[in-house]
């Protein structure tokens, strides 16, 4: 491998055997080395393959400027996430996680921890990502001796959600639990009930709402299967249909999305199940 760019004495960029750009890290790996020189592979300690379409130089610049312990901490968190989620995560998660953790530690040390108003929704919608985030808090404590609150696990979980949603910005990902919470609130207020959060029908409704919300923020629109049952169900379940109308109005007012008849049907079916005792 030939050095393409040197960032400091420990970080450089090169091409692997497949011609893909990689970032290499190692103690003294690039010391007295220059672009065009051969890489001393005996000194390579970490190899980062950057996903196609991402800026390898930006990532290399990032890892060259953070302390080694911080890189090791974030790498341990990301590796654990990949293990639990069963996928390879975008390396730019290192950047967003590092920034967030730095700010969270600073807030904690100054006594200004943030409350996460969507913590419950995040736990319910993204249980695997939240489990990863809970372990991340333990890893952060191991490296920094700072014990972050559970609210921060909710925020960290969303970073793992966001990196899996290639079309979404972080602000969009953060809006998904709010959309779900607002729709659940509409249902509860409309029927004057508290939904049974332990029921199977509630869990299925949550899954449906999660994908519903992702379609909204990804601007994908709703799939149409030309199902012609909405009018019939509206006559049989007028109260449920009225509730769906309220959800539709909320989506139009807040997200400029009008729900089509197929999505109305699925919402009516889920709501009919979830309101039954």
Question: Could you walk me through the main structural features you see in this protein, from its secondary elements to its overall organization?
Answer:
Helix 9 (230-236) packs across helix 10 and helix 10 packs across helix 11 (261-274). The chain has eleven helices and four strands; from the N terminus they run E-E-E-E-H-H-H-H-H-H-H-H-H-H-H. It has helices at residues 56-65, 68-85, 93-109, 119-125, 127-144, 150-164, 170-191, 200-217, 230-236, 238-255, 261-274, and strands at residues 3-6, 11-15, 21-25, 46-49. It has 277 residues and is α+β, with helices and mostly antiparallel strands. The protein folds into three domains: 3-61, CAT RNA-binding domain (Transcription Regulation, Sacy, Chain A), CATH 2.30.24; 68-164, PRD domain (PTS-regulatory domain, PRD); 170-274, PTS-regulatory domain, PRD (Orthogonal Bundle). The chain is elongated, with a radius of gyration of 24 Å. The chain has a four-stranded antiparallel sheet, with helices on one face. The mean pLDDT is 86. The longest helix has 22 residues, at 170-191.
């Amino acid at each position: 491998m030939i050095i393409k760019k040197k960032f400091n004495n420990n970080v450089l960029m090169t091409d692997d055997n497949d011609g893909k750009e990689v970032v290499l890290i190692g103690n003294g790996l690039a010391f007295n080395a220059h672009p065009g020189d051969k890489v001393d592979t005996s000194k390579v300690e970490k190899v980062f393959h950057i996903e196609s379409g991402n800026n390898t130089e930006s990532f290399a610049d990032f890892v060259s400027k953070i302390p080694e312990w911080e890189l090791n901490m974030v790498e341990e968190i990301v590796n654990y996430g990949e293990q639990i989620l069963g996928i390879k995560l975008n390396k730019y998660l290192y950047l967003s996680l590092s920034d967030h953790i730095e700010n969270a530690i600073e807030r904690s040390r100054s006594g200004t921890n943030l409350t996460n108003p969507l913590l419950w929704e995040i736990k319910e919608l993204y249980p695997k990502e939240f489990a990863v985030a809970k372990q991340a808090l333990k890893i952060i404590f191991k490296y920094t001796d700072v014990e972050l609150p559970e609210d921060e696990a909710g925020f960290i979980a969303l970073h793992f959600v966001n990196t899996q949603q290639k079309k979404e910005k972080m602000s969009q990902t953060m809006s998904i639990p709010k959309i779900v919470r607002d729709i659940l609130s509409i249902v509860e207020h409309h029927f004057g009930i508290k939904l049974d959060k332990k029921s199977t029908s509630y869990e299925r409704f949550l899954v449906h709402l999660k994908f519903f919300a992702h379609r909204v923020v990804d601007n994908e629109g709703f799939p149409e299967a030309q199902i012609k049952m909405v009018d019939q169900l509206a006559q049989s379940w007028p109260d449920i249909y009225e509730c769906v109308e309220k959800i539709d109005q909320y989506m139009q007012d807040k997200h400029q999305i009008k729900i089509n008849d197929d999505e109305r049907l699925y919402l009516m079916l889920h709501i009919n199940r979830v309101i039954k005792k």
